[in-house]
Design brief:
Blueprint lengths: L1 H14 L2 E4 L4 H14 L3 H9 L2 E4 L17 H8 L2 H13 L1 H11 L3 H12 L8 E2 H10 L5 H17 L8 E2 L12 H7 L15 H14 L9 E3 L10 E2 L7 E2 H6 L13 E7 L6 E5 L1 H6 L6 H22 L1
Parallel strand pairs: 6-8
Antiparallel strand pairs: 1-2, 3-4, 5-9, 7-8, 8-9
Helix pairs in contact: 2-3, 4-14, 5-7, 5-14, 6-11, 7-14, 8-9, 9-10
Length: 330
């Protein structure tokens, strides 16, 4: 019995991961040296902040388990998480509270106010749920661990440190989502650096506590991704079985024009011009998937989150927000 107990202790000890300060890992030092060399960071300062976060060193002999492939959430269930009466009500309140800013952003970037409000509603429930995970630690774990997108997170960790330095924000003070997105609009660090704007002109960009900067930044993000002024988003369409192959579950960029699709035998609404570029998507359902005809601005919505369900929720929530806002103000 005693031998068995000892064996169990030894075995469990061999597979338990060790949690240590990030500065105990060579990968951290390699990264710090690059930041010092390429971006003139102070090495002692980086060593200090990385010593304050902890990473996990798994036993090298432990076999990696392949992640279980999760079933894709149906479109109806996904939609039900975001399009609710309470979210619409809260969105109208946010719209009313930030009416002048939304009008100004709409005028400057030609992105409809309801789209900006919908994005903020989906991302953080209008700033009420911005995330409580320490962003530096989140990014370091993914950058130095055994994550599939390791290189992406190494880049985002670099961008995060540059962003915090440029905006004079202590890196250890920043909190965000479980994947490193931050602030009202849940921008990742690279998006913060390249698309965030000082929309209230106070000399700093603050997406953590300033809804004005957040609104302007979302509008600028879409504008920089070639938003088409006044462009349509999507229409439901019934496709023949032979044409279902054109409707994709993944994001689909409009490349072929209406005339091309009509020549393929697709029954496209007559009011759509021959030169208009279109794409087709499929939204997963338990039985028969929904199919939609999509325009350029729908594709731009997927640049914010590369998921057709996300873009469709943003579009449909925006429609309900606009309807409710107009009813209230007419």
């Amino acid at each position: 019995m005693r031998i068995l107990l000892l064996l169990l202790i030894c075995f469990s000890g061999s597979i338990v991961a060790k949690t240590l300060p990030a500065t105990n890992f060579q990968a951290t030092h390699n990264f710090i040296n690059k930041m010092v060399k390429n971006h003139q960071f102070n090495k002692d300062e980086l060593l200090f902040i990385f010593s304050k976060i902890e990473l996990t060193l798994a036993d090298k002999n432990q076999k990696k388990k392949k992640p279980k492939k999760e079933k894709t959430m149906s479109w109806d269930k996904y939609k039900g998480l975001f399009i609710t009466e309470q979210r619409i009500k809260d969105g109208i309140n946010f719209w009313q509270d930030n009416l002048a800013t939304l009008k100004r952003a709409e005028s400057k970037y030609n992105v409809p106010a309801e789209i900006m409000v919908a994005i903020l509603g989906i991302e953080t429930n209008y700033g009420n749920k911005k995330g409580t995970y320490p962003t530096l630690e989140t990014l370091a774990k993914r950058a130095f661990g055994n994550y599939r997108r390791k290189k992406f997170y190494q880049k985002e960790l670099k961008e995060f440190l540059l962003m915090s330095r440029e905006n004079v924000i202590p890196p250890l003070s920043i909190q965000g989502s479980y994947a490193g997105a931050m602030g009202y609009p849940q921008f990742i660090a690279s998006s913060y650096r390249y698309y965030a704007v000082d929309f209230n002109h106070d000399g700093k960009i603050d997406l953590f506590s300033n809804p004005i900067d957040a609104i302007g930044s979302i509008a600028n993000y879409f504008d920089q991704h070639q938003w088409h002024d006044g462009g349509e988003f999507a229409r439901p369409i019934v496709l023949q079985s032979s044409h279902l192959k054109h409707a994709r579950l993944n994001t689909n960029k409009p490349k072929k024009n209406t005339q091309y699709w009509r020549n393929k035998g697709l029954d496209i609404h007559q009011d759509i011009k021959n030169k208009t570029k279109l794409a087709f998507i499929s939204l997963p359902q338990n039985e028969i998937n929904e199919t939609w005809l999509t325009f350029w601005n729908f594709y731009v919505l997927t640049r914010y989150n590369h998921d057709n369900r996300y873009a469709m929720v943003a579009y449909q929530l925006s429609c309900k927000l606009k309807q409710a806002f107009n009813q209230l103000n007419n």
